[in-house]
Each structure stands twice: as structure tokens, then as C-alpha cells.
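Whiteboard transcription, Tuesday session. T.W. wrote the C-alpha cells on the left side:
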């Protein structure tokens, strides 16, 4: 793995450079379909690389985890073990590599979220309001992975301003988009609710989200849990 081949003091610099390059490419992809397709593929590869399966994550995978089945109104809640494995970011590795992989993951997350000013998150939030549904769907999958990763690494201590725009866009998608996108947004919001600062923000938004969450509690288990946490 790349993390085992780079000097620790340089690792963060390389990761930050790569993350900024992704943000720049996403910006360009808002107006260029070819760049957009490449960015979507790159984001899905990134998320998949740090999942337990190591495979590219698709919207079908995430929707299935949320209990959504082709518009079915039948709610299927996961068992406790299954819930713990939702987009698990544990990196499969040999024991001797575990510490370096953990350091790489922390460096990656810190570069993605920044210290309150995150080019990556700002670009993701702009993409979430794009008219291009494939880009919106891919960014929702990315945010689902990122929020899951963050909730496993941190339960508090994150810089709230970095997430304000993204969480606001997730709320808008939950309120106004088609059911599949609502499902992806609800899973990200549920993951964010596990982080103290984000949960406080979500409770401020709770009144606006209450009616739609109530309407989804029998369809999406993440909506049911999020409703219980916020109301």
C-alpha cells in the first residue's frame, strides 16, 4: 500500500495535494461531462478502496444497506452486527501494517474535512446541488462513506463549519428529491448524527426535517433512527 512506501512526515503533504486535486477536478466537472464521469469513477474507487470489501461502492449497495428495495415500502432493519458493518472503513491488512494504515486513514480524513475550511467539502456541497443526477448520486455515496468513516474515528471534536454546507445540502435532498436520493441522504445524516457537533446542528434543523422523516420511518430504517434521535 502507498502508506507503507512513503516517509511518515511526507504522507500528510501527499494526501493533502491529492485531495486538493480531486476538489479541483470536481469543480471542473460541474461544467464538463467527460471530467465529471472520470471524477465520479475516481470517487467511487476511493470509497471502495477503504471499505471492508475493497470493491467499488455503488448506490445499489448503499440503498440495500438502508433497507430500500426498488421503491418497496417494506422496511428491513439490519441486525446490530449488520448495522456496525455499514460501509465499514476498516482496512484489511496484515497486523504489522495496521498502524500505518490507521495513520493513513486519519491523514486522509483530516485532509478531506480540513480545519474548518475544506475545499473538498465545499466542492462536494456544490456538486450536491448540481442538475447532473449521476454526479449528485456519486457525491451522496461519497458523503455516506465519509460520514461513516468519521463517525468511527471521532465522536466529537470536529470543526462544525466544515460540515455546515454539506449537511444543509443533505437536508435539501431529503426534503425535495426522489426516494433513492432521500435514502442516500438519510444514511449520511444518520452517520453524522453520531458526531456530537453534527448532532447539535441536525437538532437545529429537526423541525424542518420532521415531517419527511416521519413519512419515511416505515420505508428507510435510517430515517426511522434519525427521527428517533432528533425528535
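and on the right, the sequence the group agreed on:
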Amino acid at each position: 500500500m502507498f502508506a507503507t512506501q512513503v516517509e511518515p512526515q511526507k504522507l500528510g503533504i501527499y494526501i493533502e495535494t491529492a485531495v486538493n486535486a480531486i476538489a479541483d477536478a470536481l469543480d471542473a466537472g460541474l461544467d464538463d461531462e467527460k471530467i465529471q464521469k472520470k471524477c465520479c469513477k475516481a470517487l467511487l474507487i476511493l470509497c471502495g478502496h477503504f471499505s471492508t470489501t475493497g470493491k467499488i461502492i455503488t448506490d445499489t449497495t448503499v440503498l440495500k444497506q438502508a433497507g430500500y428495495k426498488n421503491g418497496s415500502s417494506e422496511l428491513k432493519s439490519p441486525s446490530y452486527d449488520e448495522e456496525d458493518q455499514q460501509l465499514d472503513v476498516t482496512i484489511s491488512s496484515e497486523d504489522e501494517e495496521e498502524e500505518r494504515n490507521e495513520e493513513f486513514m486519519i491523514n486522509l480524513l483530516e485532509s478531506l474535512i480540513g480545519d474548518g475550511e475544506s475545499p473538498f467539502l465545499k466542492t462536494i456541497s456544490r456538486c450536491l446541488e448540481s442538475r447532473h443526477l449521476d454526479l449528485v448520486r456519486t457525491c451522496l455515496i461519497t458523503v455516506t462513506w465519509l460520514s461513516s468513516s468519521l463517525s468511527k474515528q471521532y465522536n466529537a471534536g470536529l470543526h462544525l463549519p466544515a460540515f455546515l454546507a454539506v449537511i444543509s445540502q443533505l437536508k435539501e435532498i431529503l426534503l425535495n428529491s426522489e426516494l433513492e436520493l432521500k435514502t442516500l441522504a438519510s444514511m449520511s445524516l444518520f452517520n453524522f448524527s453520531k458526531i456530537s457537533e453534527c448532532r447539535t446542528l441536525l437538532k437545529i434543523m429537526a423541525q424542518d426535517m420532521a415531517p419527511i422523516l416521519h413519512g419515511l420511518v416505515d420505508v428507510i430504517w435510517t430515517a426511522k433512527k434519525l427521527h428517533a434521535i432528533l425528535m
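Someone added at the bottom: DSSP finds eleven helices and no strands in the chain.
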